[in-house]
Amino acid sequence: MPNYLTPEAFRVMGFGVDLSTFEEVEVRNILARASARVNTYCAAPTLPQPHDFRGGTITGEQHSWSMGSDLVAGQRRYYAWHRPIKEISQFRVVVTNSQYVQIAPTELFINHSEGYVEVVSLAVTSIGIFGSGLIPNLGLARPVGVMDYTYGWSFPVVGEELLDTDGETFRAQNQWWDADVTPTVYINGAEQTTGYALDYNEGTVQFNDLLAANDVVTLDYNHTLPTAIAGATGAIATHMIGQSKLAAKGMVGIGSLKVAEVSITRAPQFRGQDDDAIPDEAANLLEPYRFLSVYGGS
What we know:
Blueprint: H1 7-11, H2 24-41, E1 56-64, E2 77-78, E3 85-94, E4 100-103, E5 108-111, E6 116-119, E7 124-125, E8 128-129, E9 144-151, E10 155-161, E11 163-164, E12 169-171, E13 184-187, E14 190-192, E15 196-199, E16 204-207, E17 217-223, H3 227-248, E18 256-259, E19 262-265, E20 270-271, E21 278-279, H4 280-286
Antiparallel strand pairs: 1-9, 2-6, 3-4, 3-9, 5-6, 7-8, 10-17, 11-12, 12-16, 13-14, 13-17, 15-16, 18-19, 20-21
Helix pairs in contact: 2-3, 3-4
């Protein structure tokens, strides 16, 4: 399963949680569970490989494919489970164990707005003209479209001022930089080409030498994880840490507490059941990223 935050990034996100009593492995496990809750709330697909909001590679995704008939046009659109699609490496319409129609990626149009792939040309094959319905009454009752592809975002950021952590290491607001886009580092507006190392996963620039206290480091880069996903993961992890501290005090499930004249009541600000509840703050961030079922016809 994906882990959308590292402990180092979580500590500087400003959620106000005290991590001093937690071992590093505990924080990492909490963040992994929070990331899993993000995927669960968003109904992220798990087939043929689990979804990762940072992007990934999908091999062998299968959907039924209608070849059409004399009265009904054949199917031309393929709705992939994972999105946004970046690049298609292979597309086939499988008819039998050994027969299939191979469609070149150059003959496929990716509709990024509506999230589907459309065949934009006809292909002459051993089973007839693709899309015309000229297919023998053999093999699969309904052919299957099989696609291999990569998916994910690449968000550009220009001129972000980095956070100085120790005079040598400077942190960006976003982790998980796009490895296909080389970041550009500036000190006081002057581009730097040497003298530093980049951590693409952590989102940091580490210089070989200490910089002056008044030096300003800025960065142009692309990142792959939506900011809302990172924020929601942090909010869920904060809630989980709070729950673990209540559990340690034997207070799980207590809605109100009264000592003498002082009464404390917990407000219901969580969506879901007790075992998978997430804060409303996280739910609101995740709403635009929830997956909806789409019928892949025509």
